[in-house]
């Protein structure tokens, strides 16, 4: 096939994909609104998995506390987009008598930046640790963050403790509030769909950034560190800075996803950011293929979507067979994650879709 | 002074538990270089099995004295824990002996989740009330006269369960030390721990030794689980995670792979945590309350790994690791 | 008296109770090939690790291009112009031969996150240059045909050559090779000899650990012999071959290949 024809094929392929992606929420909406919700949550997980992939897949650092960055992003957005700060702090209330109401174009980068800062903070003590110790220490950090989120409501109420932050404003872009059905060019677009397009755009952005990083001097340096840190150092790579960079970038994506989660849910609490969540994201990266971007996306979609589909099936089936639900969907979900990790390690350690050469 | 003394006692009790569980972590790491992430879950299984056994027994024989109930719990829990640990090693770790280092760790995390989930299925999500087995009246050790008028007397006491924990732990630790130092199995364990290839050449079956290591650690963990449940009167599918993590910290603190290190680390961590919890409010001027006490274990872990990674008594990890 | 390109004086390193390196001094003049030989365990690789900053020396002074340096961080040593290969071959197995060499150029390139993400013209130019240079180095050592093969899939001899290409990619003034001929057959060793001579001719000095005595004696301007961490002989290859201490250390093994 000539080069031009090949090019044409690629373009057509992309167009078809773009149309499919654009139409997806409408199709899913036909089955039920909850499916669009699931789609949106799945996109958040894709963002998280891609972020963790930078740390685990590219640089080879097993971070078991990654969800902490999701939490940071979520709480930063939550604090800035809700009445919590003005309700609890006189100074802020006087400075912003009508509420904070910051632009989303400020809040998303801010969430990313602060999360990146935490990435450096939590990554710095781990730089000299060997693989498994690094995993445990990062796990500890994740738990510490959650501990603080749960308890920083006294003496100064920063996080509102276990109750979390609510009344978080939905996203507002160009005057359009993502809070109900919106009339766009004569078409009735539900808020869920608006969030979908926003999340999709962010996800695509993150994918492009990851791909470009992977095929660059930085990406090669990370892979070198992952393959053989001593040789990497001996080749002139400042491994300390490279590792911190991986932590910071990975964390920033987690922060962006967290901010979006916050806006989408309208409320955040420490419960959503436990160890299990960190493990779930790790599971997605491991299942998909550590370090391979398409694999990671696949892993995230599978592990975000499959338990949901199962939930739709499993409950009625058990009701029918046993008259009651013996194993509820949550338990099944956990079981899937646990089994996935063990089985993938035993039988397909490179993941479902590894980077082959 | 009264807080100090009481927290010291609490620390000793807590530390004994940490030490028992830490031994399981340290022995496995010494021989395989693997963090047995699922070890905390074995503690939980000990507690849950004991709960079921005791509840069943009470149902059949309502007049049984408490201490027999306790014994029933332990006798049922320990074999189950040993079997579970043996199976984990065989199914989830052994095939990965030659895999890159992180593979068995990820597998271990998966196993941990599976065990928690199975416990959820079998025993449900709710907190289970562990049947009372031993008398609960605290034994008063010392009474401090009230400092101010109209103030209450401050006492330092220990409950029978707490006393049992300290005594049983000490006995078990002594037993383990004897086994490791004086028996053939112990010698084989030490040899495999130091140099698996050489041990193999001398006729020691590494697989058997490794299995024995897991099983012994599990037995200790099972007893620890029953005692913890008896002490707090509660059992729950998630109860193994945090103690497991802290026990691992204790093992690292003392020097991973070193059984004396695990014992020392466990006791130290327990005492530090108890004293810390008692004084945390005062130390931080009221900013951090005692519900931050879990932070101590993490802080210790990070400090040890940053400043003195080989621990207090030094690492003893095999060449294989 | 020329200023040596590189010198390490009074190196000392102990591990626990064992002195691995005891008062060893060595230097390399510009354009020289210096050989470091000795029985297994004599401390040769330890010296390399001290020089390149992988181990912290108990004692020792280090100079490179006339300036004192503290070998505290290996990456700075590499950026200074001292590149090395490893006794046990430490290639980046999940990357291709080309990518391995590209990593070797890390210290000589600058593009960071912004350049990578924004694909600025400068970044694209640099990537192109890296690609071309890497191919050039692969050709130089003779494995240009395998540029897209995974490093782990190459034959043993080719892996050794790839390691050399990767080290050369940083355009070092001094190339430290740790047993580059280990495991090679006679033909490969001949090709290696040619390569080393070409490297020297093109302006890079070489410090060489080798067990193959014929190879060493054939190309080294100066030979240093270590045994039990100490220097037992130093000089031209002929001088060293005739030293009684050396003959004893090798138990007559010098006359074997």
Key features of this structure:
heterotrimer, A: 357 residues, mainly alpha, 14 helices, C: 257 residues, alpha/beta, Rossmann fold, 2 domains, 38% helix
Describe how the helices and strands are arranged.
The complex is a heterotrimer of chains A (357), B (321) and C (257).
Chain A: H1 3-31, H2 33-58, H3 67-80, H4 84-88, H5 90-95, H6 104-123, H7 131-151, E1 172-173, E2 176-177, E3 182-184, E4 187-189, H8 191-214, H9 217-227, H10 229-234, H11 239-265, H12 275-288, H13 293-322, H14 329-347
Antiparallel strand pairs in A: 1-2, 3-4
Chain B: H1 2-32, H2 39-60, H3 66-93, H4 102-123, E1 128-129, E2 139-144, E3 154-158, H5 160-182, H6 184-194, H7 196-201, H8 206-232, E4 234-235, H9 241-254, H10 259-283, H11 294-307
Antiparallel strand pairs in B: 1-4, 2-3
Chain C: E1 6-15, E2 18-28, E3 33-37, H1 44-52, E4 59-64, E5 67-68, H2 74-80, E6 82-84, H3 97-104, H4 113-118, H5 121-141, H6 156-168, E7 174-178, H7 186-201, E8 205-209, H8 213-219, E9 222-227, E10 230-235, H9 237-241, H10 244-249
Parallel strand pairs in C: 3-8, 3-9, 6-7, 7-8
Antiparallel strand pairs in C: 1-2, 1-4, 4-5, 9-10
Distance between the termini of chain C: 35 Å
Order of helices and strands of chain A: HHHHHHHEEEEHHHHHHH
Write out the strand line-up for the largest beta sheet of chain C, numbering strands in chain order: 6-7-8-3-9-10
- What class do helices, strands and sheet pairing of chain C give? alpha/beta
Shape of chain C: globular
Helix coverage percent of residues of chain C? 25-40%
Q: What portion of residues of chain A belong to β-strands?
A: under 5%
Description:
The complex is a heterotrimer of chains A (357), B (321) and C (257). With 357 residues, chain A is mainly alpha-helical. Chain A is built from 14 helices and four strands. Chain A has a two-stranded antiparallel sheet. Chain A has a two-stranded antiparallel sheet with strand order 3-4. Chain A is globular, with a radius of gyration of 21 Å. With 321 residues, chain B is mostly helical. Chain B has helices spanning 2-32, 39-60, 66-93, 102-123, 160-182, 184-194, 196-201, 206-232, 241-254, 259-283, 294-307, and strands at 128-129, 139-144, 154-158, 234-235. Chain B has a two-stranded antiparallel sheet with strand order 1-4. A two-stranded antiparallel sheet of chain B has the order 2-3. The radius of gyration of chain B is 20 Å and the shape is globular. In chain C, 38% of the residues lie in helices and 23% in strands. Chain C contains ten helices and ten strands. By secondary structure, chain C is of the alpha/beta class. In chain C, helix 3 crosses helix 5 (121-141) and helix 3 packs parallel to helix 6 (156-168). The interface between A and B is large, with 41 and 44 residues.
């Amino acid at each position: 096939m000539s080069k031009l024809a090949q090019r044409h094929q690629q373009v057509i392929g992309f167009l078809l994909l773009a149309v499919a992606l654009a139409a997806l929420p409408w199709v899913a909406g036909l089955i039920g609104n909850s499916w669009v919700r699931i789609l949106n949550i799945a996109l958040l997980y894709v963002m998280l998995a891609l972020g963790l992939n930078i740390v685990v897949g590219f640089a080879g650092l097993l971070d078991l506390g990654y969800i902490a960055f999701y939490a940071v992003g979520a709480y930063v957005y939550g604090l800035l987009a809700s009445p919590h700060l003005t309700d609890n702090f006189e100074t802020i209330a006087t400075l912003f008598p009508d509420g904070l109401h910051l632009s989303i174009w400020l809040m998303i980068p801010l969430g990313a930046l602060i999360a990146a800062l935490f990435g450096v903070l939590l990554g710095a003590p781990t730089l000299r640790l060997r693989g498994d110790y690094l995993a445990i220490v990062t796990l500890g950090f994740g738990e510490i963050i959650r501990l603080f989120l749960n308890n920083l409501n006294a003496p100064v109420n920063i996080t509102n403790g276990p109750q979390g932050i609510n009344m978080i404003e939905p996203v507002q872009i160009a005057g359009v509030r993502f809070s109900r059905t919106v009339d766009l060019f004569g078409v009735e677009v539900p808020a869920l769909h608006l969030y979908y397009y926003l999340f999709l755009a962010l996800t695509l952005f993150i994918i492009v950034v990851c791909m470009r990083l992977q095929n660059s001097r930085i990406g090669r340096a990370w892979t070198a560190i992952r393959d053989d840190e001593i040789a990497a150092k001996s080749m002139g790579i400042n491994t300390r800075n490279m590792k911190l960079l991986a932590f910071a970038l990975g964390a920033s994506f987690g922060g962006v996803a967290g901010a979006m989660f916050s806006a989408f849910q309208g409320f955040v609490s420490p419960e959503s950011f436990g160890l299990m969540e960190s493990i779930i994201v790790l599971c997605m990266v491991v299942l998909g293929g550590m370090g391979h971007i398409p694999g990671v996306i696949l892993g995230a979609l599978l592990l975000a979507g499959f338990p949901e589909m199962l939930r739709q099936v499993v409950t009625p089936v058990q009701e029918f067979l046993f008259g009651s639900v013996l194993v509820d969907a949550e338990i099944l979900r956990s079981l899937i994650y646990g089994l996935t990790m063990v089985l993938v390690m035993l039988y397909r350690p490179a993941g479902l879709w590894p980077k082959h050469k | 002074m009264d807080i100090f003394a009481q927290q010291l006692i609490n620390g000793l009790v807590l530390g004994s538990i940490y030490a028992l569980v830490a031994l399981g972590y340290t022995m496995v790491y010494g021989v395989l270089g693997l963090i047995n992430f699922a070890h905390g879950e074995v503690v939980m299984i000990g507690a849950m099995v004991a709960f079921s056994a005791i509840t069943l027994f009470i149902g059949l024989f309502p007049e049984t004295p408490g201490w027999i109930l306790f014994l029933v719990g332990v006798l049922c829990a320990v074999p189950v824990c040993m079997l579970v640990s043996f199976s984990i090693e065989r199914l989830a770790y052994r095939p990965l002996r030659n895999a890159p280092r992180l593979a068995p760790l990820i597998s271990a995390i998966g196993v941990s989740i599976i065990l928690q989930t199975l416990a959820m299925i079998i025993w449900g999500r709710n907190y289970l009330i562990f049947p009372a087995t031993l008398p609960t009246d605290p034994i008063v050790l010392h009474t401090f006269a009230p400092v101010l008028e109209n103030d209450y007397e401050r006492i330092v006491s220990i409950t029978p369960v707490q006393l049992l924990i300290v005594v049983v732990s000490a006995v078990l630790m002594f037993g383990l030390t004897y086994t490791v130092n004086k028996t053939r199995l112990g010698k084989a364990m030490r040899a495999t721990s130091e140099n698996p290839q050489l041990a193999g050449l001398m006729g020691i079956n590494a697989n058997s030794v490794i299995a024995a290591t897991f099983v012994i650690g599990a037995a200790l963990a099972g007893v620890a689980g029953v005692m913890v449940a008896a002490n707090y009167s509660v059992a729950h599918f998630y109860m193994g995670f945090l103690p497991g993590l802290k026990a691992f910290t204790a093992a690292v603190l003392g020097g991973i792979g070193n059984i004396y290190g695990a014992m020392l680390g466990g006791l130290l961590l327990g005492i530090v945590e108890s004293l810390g919890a008692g004084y945390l409010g005062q130390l931080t001027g009221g900013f951090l309350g005692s519900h931050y006490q879990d932070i101590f274990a993490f802080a210790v872990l990070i400090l040890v790994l940053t400043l003195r990674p080989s621990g207090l008594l030094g690492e003893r990890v095999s060449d294989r690791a | 008296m020329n200023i040596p390109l590189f010198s390490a004086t009074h190196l000392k390193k102990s591990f626990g109770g064992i002195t691995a390196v005891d008062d060893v001094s060595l230097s390399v003049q510009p354009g020289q090939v210096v050989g470091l030989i000795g029985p297994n365990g004599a401390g040769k690789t330890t010296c390399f690790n001290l020089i390149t900053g992988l181990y912290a020396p108990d004692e020792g002074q280090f100079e490179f291009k006339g300036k004192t340096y503290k070998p505290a961080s290996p990456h700075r040593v590499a950026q200074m112009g001292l590149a090395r290969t490893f006794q046990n071959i430490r290639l980046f197995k999940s990357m291709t031969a080309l990518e391995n060499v590209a990593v070797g150029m890390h210290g000589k390139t600058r593009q960071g996150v912004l350049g990578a993400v924004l694909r600025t013209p400068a970044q694209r130019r640099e990537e192109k240059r890296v690609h071309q240079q890497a191919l050039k180095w692969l050709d130089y050592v003779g494995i240009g045909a395998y540029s897209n093969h995974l490093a782990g899939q190459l034959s043993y001899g080719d892996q050794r050559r790839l390691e050399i290409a990767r080290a050369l990619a940083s355009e070092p003034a001094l190339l430290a090779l740790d047993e580059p001929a280990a495991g090679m057959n006679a033909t490969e060793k001949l090709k290696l000899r040619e390569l080393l001579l070409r490297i020297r001719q093109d302006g890079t000095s070489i410090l060489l650990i080798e067990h193959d005595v014929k190879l060493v004696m054939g190309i080294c301007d100066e030979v240093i012999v270590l045994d039990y961490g100490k220097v037992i002989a130093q000089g031209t290859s002929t001088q060293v071959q005739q030293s009684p201490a050396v003959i004893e250390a090798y138990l007559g093994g010098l006359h074997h290949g």
